[in-house]
Write a structure and sequence with these properties.
Strand content: under 5%
Largest sheet: none
Shape: globular
Number of helices: 4
Radius of gyration: 11 Å
Amino acid sequence: MNKYTQGIELPLGFGLALEEFQAMDYFFSLPEKEQQHMVDHAETIQSKLEMLAYVQSIVNSGS
């Protein structure tokens, strides 16, 4: 079973952006409460560029 198929459901654009930045493993290593907070914010994003910038900020904060 794919390790990403259980737990929190990702908005499509957020999931694609995580994949683009190769950040899926990082995202799923975070506590579920933090994941949910990120997903809640991602659901408010209206454009691809804004989503990419948001995910890049997540990746940079985890470095």
